[in-house]
Amino acid sequence: xxxxxxxxxxxxxxxxxxxxxxxxxxxxxxxxxxxxxxxxxxxxxxxxxxxxxxxxxxxxxxxxxxxxxxxxxxxxxxxxxxxxxxxxxxxxxxxxxxxxxxxxxxxxxxxxxxxxxxxxxxxxxxxxxxxxxxxxxxxxxxxxxxxxxxxxxxxxxxxxxxxxxxxxxxxxxxxxxxxxxxxxxxxxxxxxxxxxxxxxxxxxxxxx
Length: 208
What we know:
The mean pLDDT is 95. The protein is globular, with a radius of gyration of 15 Å. The chain is of the alpha/beta class. The chain has a single domain, classed as TIM Barrel, CATH 3.20.20.70.
């Protein structure tokens, strides 16, 4: 599984551009994974977005993941789903999506990472590593730092991306600490040129 450069979408953070437009640019820039995370949209709208980008990701061999919504992932024929603390258990999600589905899990502690591995997660999203305004996180899940990343890397065998305040300026540090890639929202969605921003980030991750 190649996690590399992992885009988490968000129309409210895309400077008036559609999610499809941002995803197209990110694909042209070399993104490896696209996660549809449209928190302010209805279930119907989330499905519409996912179905619009699915042909793009499929043609480019880019993994498409849906945040939280197992039903949307199934209806959009996505590659899998990414789950948080308040979502369905990993086993239930896999049961509904089938054995080939990719199931990711957000964690911020070593204990959480071990639990997710035991439960059968395919990969982890570890964070928030740095301060972030793109996503609401509890205080104990905010700014966990690179030492926590190293500890999680030592504790589990699962691949994982570092997320939360990651930019081109610090992505190499996150990978050096043990992450297999970086997940970003604003670093791509808010960029003047999302394609160029993705390409720069991808180059940094590959080099690191």
